[in-house]
Amino acid sequence: MDAQTIIAKRIAQELRSGMLVNLGIGIPTLVASHVPTSINVFFQSENGLIGTGPIPEEGMAHPTLTDAAGHPVSALPGASTFDSAISFGLIRGGHVDMTVLGGLQVDEEGHLANWMIPGKMVPGMGGAMDLVTGAKRVVVAMQHTAKGKPKIVKKCTLPLTSLRRIDLVVTDLAVISFPEGGATLIETAPGVTPEQVIAATEAELVVPDHVPEMRL
Amino acid sequence: MKTIAVKDAVAMIPDGASLMIGGFMAVGTPERLVDELVRQGKRNLTIIANDTAMPGRGVGKLVSAGLIAKTIASHIGLNPETQQQMIAGKMAVDLVPQGTLIERIRAGGFGLGGILTPTGVGTVVEEGKQRMEMDGKSYLVETALHAEFALVHSFLADYDGNLSYALTARNFNPVMATAADTVIVTAEHIVPVGVIAPDHVVTPAPLVDYLVTNE
Predict the structure, then answer these.
(1) Closest CA to B161 of B123, B196, B137
(2) Distance, in angstroms, between B69 CA and closest chain A CA?
(3) What residues of chain B lie within 8 A of the CB of A85, using their CB?
(4) Does the distance separating the beta carbons of B51 and A122 come in below 8 Å?
(5) How far is A20 from chain B (nearest CA, A)?
């Protein structure tokens, strides 16, 4: 299984029936492909849609039915559309149960940096700051390291997305949660040992005696 | 409400004007008005929009033509030309969180001086802004946005100027229609009064100043 599939499949296990969920672009988008068939989840696109469905088949796309990247999507039965004030009212107002976002850095305290690299990449924050500030649960999906360097660091050196701490980060190596007191290793990827995770992580991890493997 | 040809609508807009332009990655952007801005070569514009789309589409056409002096947007990441002009100092870019941007526009249109939002507290977005504590929570004071013109794209417009929108082409459009001195609207279809049922009108006719006629 490739790294992105591991991450997406594991995060899909966090979904529960009836949740309103916002997926960011990149790896988070893949989570939608792994939703258990037994549950019903509402996906929001922040450009103004609840009930976002799969990419339409060739010839079935509509120019005004798109996701937050401007790509064609479909709408599921029961979908609704609304303006950007309502869309962000849902996000900031605590009505979104879970958001899944990409990350550049996550630090020991659970702070996320995911919107700019000064001097290199200034795309703008889009909806990321509102999502991290307002969603009930924030899950980050990212590779554990970038070019061999840890992305889970002691303290974020890149500009923060929010002061609000994330709840969970899922990588190709591990699942790490942020309860009171810091970053806690709660699962490893299949075939990965806690020692390997610690070696690939700059942040100090709390490691319980027994760390189970992800069940994918 | 008056009906107007697209070239006459754009002729009303002077160089240096501030424009709100609806759309999200060019979906729901009034492309005919944008094309005419480029054709007439309006310069030095201040653009308030969610994003600068991509080269060749929506607001991206104004970027490519070098017509923008300042952009207030939440995302410019899919238009490399915006980033080039920003780095070269040709265009000022003010990046605003998307939820804050739409609320600042709403405040401008709804007679509010600004809004209090938790988004951005403790980040670079806070720089130069007032922080307020309310019931033990921290908020930033974000000021209202207003523009001289709003360029809005609708799905249906009736002869009076009542508007409805299609799917994700709604986005910033109805909010911007409240927040400018002059509101200019294009529509996919112009229909008789009554075709849009009262419950389905999203933008009430009195908000619309000009409806651009279809060819």
Answers:
(1) B196
(2) 18
(3) 102-103, 106, 175
(4) no
(5) 18
A78-134 pLDDT per residue, tens: 999 999 999 999 999 999 999 999 999 999 999 999 999 998 888 999 999 999 999
**What's the pLDDT score for residue A153?**
98
**Contact status, residue B211 vs residue B55, Cβ threshold 8 Å:** no
Residues 20 through 59 of chain B touching chain A, CB cutoff 8 Å: 24-28, 50-51, 53-54
Measured between beta carbons, the chain A residues lying within 8 angstroms of B98 are: 46, 84, 88, 125-127, 130
- A45: contact with B, CB 8 A cutoff: yes
Q: Best of A99, A107, A130 to disrupt the B interface by mutation (most B CBs within 10 Å)?
A: A130
CB-CB contact of B63 with B81 (8 Å): yes
Look at chain B and count its residues: 215
pLDDT digits 0-9 by tens, A118-139: 988 889 999 999 999 999 999 9
Sign of CA dihedral B82, B88, B92, B95: positive
Look up A57 and say whether it is catalytic.
no
Q: Can you name the CATH fold of B2-114+146-212?
A: Glutaconate Coenzyme A-transferase (3.40.1080)
Question: Dihedral through CA B181, CA B187, CA B189, CA B192, nearest 10?
Answer: 0
Q: Answer yes or no: are the C-beta atoms of A21 and A42 closer than 8 Å.
A: yes
Partners of residue A53 on adjacent β-strands:
A74
The pTM score is: 0.97
* C-alpha distances out from residue A73 to A52, A101, A150, Å: 7, 19, 34
Pairing verdict, β A98-101 and A105-107: unpaired
Name the strand (E) or helix (H) holding A101. Answer: strand A98-101
Amino acid residing at B68: I
Q: Which fold has domain A3-199?
A: Glutaconate Coenzyme A-transferase (3.40.1080)
Say whether pLDDT at A181 is over 80. Answer: no
Which class for B199: exposed (0-12), middle (13-18), buried (19 or more C-beta within 10 A)?
exposed
pLDDT of residue A25: 86
Q: Residue A169 and residue A203: Cα distance in Å, rounded?
A: 13
Is the minimum CB–CB distance between B190 and chain A shorter than 8 Å? no
pLDDT at A119: 86
A162 contact residues in B (CB cutoff 8 A): 119-123
Contact call for residues B155 and B188 (beta carbons, < 8 A):
yes
